[in-house]
Amino acid sequence: MATEKLSIVKAINASLRTALESDPKVLVMGEDVGKLGGVFRVTDGLQKDFGEDRVIDTPLAESGIVGTAIGLALRGYRPVVEIQFDGFVFPAYDQIVTQLAKMHARALGKIKLPVVIRIPYGGAIGAVEHHSESPESLFAHVAGLKVVSPANASDAYWMLQQAIQSDDPVIYFEPKRRYHDRSEVDTDAATAAPGPLHTARTVRAGTDLTLAAYGPMVKTCLEAAAAAEEEGRSLEVLDLRSISPVDFDAIQASVERTRRLVVVHEAPVFFGSGAEIAARITERCFYHLEAPVLRVGGYHAPYPPSRLEDEYLPGLDRVLDAVDRSLAY
Predict the structure, then answer these.
(1) What dihedral angle (degrees, nearest 10) is formed by the CA atoms of 236, 227, 323, 277?
(2) What is the pLDDT of residues 136-194, one digit of tens each?
(3) Are residues 174 and 8 in contact, defined by beta-carbon separation less than 8 angstroms?
(4) What is the DSSP annotation of 249-286?
(5) Where is the Transketolase-like pyrimidine-binding domain (predicted)?
(6) C-alpha torsion angle, residues 185, 186, 192, 198 (rounded to 10)
(7) Taking a C-beta distance cutoff of 8 angstroms, is the pair 297, 266 a contact?
(8) Nearest-CA neighbor of 175 among 235, 220, 128?
(9) Element containing residue 57 per DSSP (H, E)
């Protein structure tokens, strides 16, 4: 067993290191990922140990980065691309949705594109414009892409391993506000035995209401469940882990027990991933629900300046308010 306490940053670094050691076809690419080790130091030390041909500093051109990764994947490589900040991904959006996501279907299954695109996302770091976006629903809407987001260091390590080994393109959203949260990570495949990449996980059992979240909001929901317990309420917290596909069976099973659901994400509520979850669970669990499915998230507005982001981001009070409204039915 190789268990140690790691931050999410260190867990991702360790996962990339394992992948680079295990498969000579794995490449790491992105702006400042080499000599600098990334703006968040996620790739620190990798270029020194694996060389400039495996850990590649690219020009500041996201469309070119992803386009090059597609070409490399066509030649048998497994590129892991870093987009430096969430709001920088949009110049590459055309390459991702019209080429990366479509090539497998376009080639009638004969071509696979095993590309991982790592995107640090979300707010609460006091950054300037275009550094705190949550664009996951834009990618979840695109057929041909898998979209995931870990909430802890163990998942950060193992979900990245699984994403790199996948023959399908994976958008891997990293909750940067949680980068320095630490937890136990077992990096031994013989003992860790991670579950399937796209399965949800119950991280706190409860009986009165289900809180479903992914990435940065899982910790917020756990804090809300702890606060609610002081008032005699038992909240179940479900870490969705995967945004596309969604583990609707796990959500349904939880809701059939608790009979109430609140979906929480940083992204705007309007046309967000919570809307699809709310619709599907209402269809599946209509006769089990004792309250409508509620959603908590950001506002339908551009991300504000850092002095206002605490008002924009969903926090403990907004989650507990939704819990109160659900339990009042």
Answers:
(1) -40
(2) 999 999 999 999 999 999 999 999 999 999 999 999 999 999 999 999 999 987 787 77
(3) yes
(4) HHHHHHHHHHS-EEEEEEEESTT-HHHHHHHHHHHHST
(5) 6-181
(6) 30
(7) yes
(8) 220
(9) strand 55-57
Phi, psi angles (nearest 5°) of residue 229: -60, -35
Residue 158 three-state SS: helix
| 258-271 burial: b if 16+ Cβ within 10 Å, else e | bbbbbbbbbbbbee
pTM of the model: 0.96
Torsion angle, CA of 21/5/187/66, rounded to 10 degrees? -50
Element (DSSP H or E) covering residue 11 = helix 8-22
Which of 131, 141, 180, 265 is flagged as catalytic? 131
What is the structure's pLDDT at 133? 95
Q: Considering all CA atoms of the chain, what is the largest pairwise distance in Å, rounded to the nearest integer?
A: 60
DSSP assignments along 166-197, one per residue: -SS-EEEEEEGGGTT-EEEEE--HHHH----T
Burial 279-298, CB ≥16 within 10 A → b, else e = eebeebbeeebeeebbbbbb
Burial class from Cβ neighbours inside 10 Å (0-12, 13-18, 19+) for residue 54 reads middle
What's the distance, CA 121 to chain centroid?
8
Alpha-carbon span 189 to 158, nearest angstrom: 9
Q: What is the pLDDT of residue 280?
A: 98
Encode 103-113: b = buried (16+ Cβ within 10 Å), e = exposed.
Answer: bbeeeeeeebb
Rounded distance, CA 133 to CA 139, Å? 13
Length of the chain: 329
The parts of the chain modelled with pLDDT lower than 70 are 1
pLDDT at 167: 97
Q: Angle 316-327/217-229 helices, nearest 10 degrees?
A: 60
Of 136, 176, 147, 177, nearest in space to 273 by CA: 136
Tokens of 90: 């949009």
The Cβ-side half-sphere exposure at 22, using a 13 Å CA radius, reads 12
Non-local CB neighbours of 122 within 8 Å, separated by 6+ positions: 86, 132, 133, 134, 175, 176, 177, 215, 216, 266
